[in-house]
Specification:
Layout: E1 3-7, E2 10-13, E3 18-25, E4 33-39, E5 46-51, E6 58-60, E7 68-73, E8 78-83, E9 92-99, E10 114-115, E11 119-124
Length: 125
């Protein structure tokens, strides 16, 4: 079993920055692809970013390209999401997720096997 715990969310003004962290325990973290998703009230959980097991490949949703950066530290079993130039549209609960057996569908929630509880990000206008 893998446990994921997000932190770093909060309230910021538009144009500000936040850095989200996700701490993993259990399993073999370095073997997992990791993703960030977000869910706004009344909407589905949407893909934000993905990083491969050795940080060699990253993917971003079009809505966050150029503003968000995903990274990981396998020694610390941590994955991060640096969010810059935040917009009110970024307001959501952000979740990290672990992909044990990658099948190529990195932007789909069904690809991932473990999820954190989420951390709230609120961006005021």
């Amino acid at each position: 079993q893998v446990q994921l715990v997000e932190s770093g969310g909060g309230l910021v003004q538009a144009g500000g920055s936040l850095r989200l962290s996700c701490a993993a325990s259990g399993g073999t973290f370095s073997d997992y692809g990791m993703g960030w998703f977000r869910q706004a009230p009344g909407k589905e959980r949407d893909f934000v970013s993905r990083i491969s097991w050795h940080s060699s490949v990253t993917y971003y949703a079009d809505s966050v390209k150029g503003r968000f950066t995903i990274s990981r530290d396998n020694a610390k079993k941590m994955v991060y999401l640096q969010m810059n130039s935040l917009k009110p549209e970024d307001t959501a609960v952000y979740y990290c997720a672990a992909d044990i057996n990658y099948s190529g569908s990195y932007s789909y929630t069904a690809e991932y096997d473990y999820w954190g509880q989420g951390t709230q990000v609120t961006v005021s206008p």
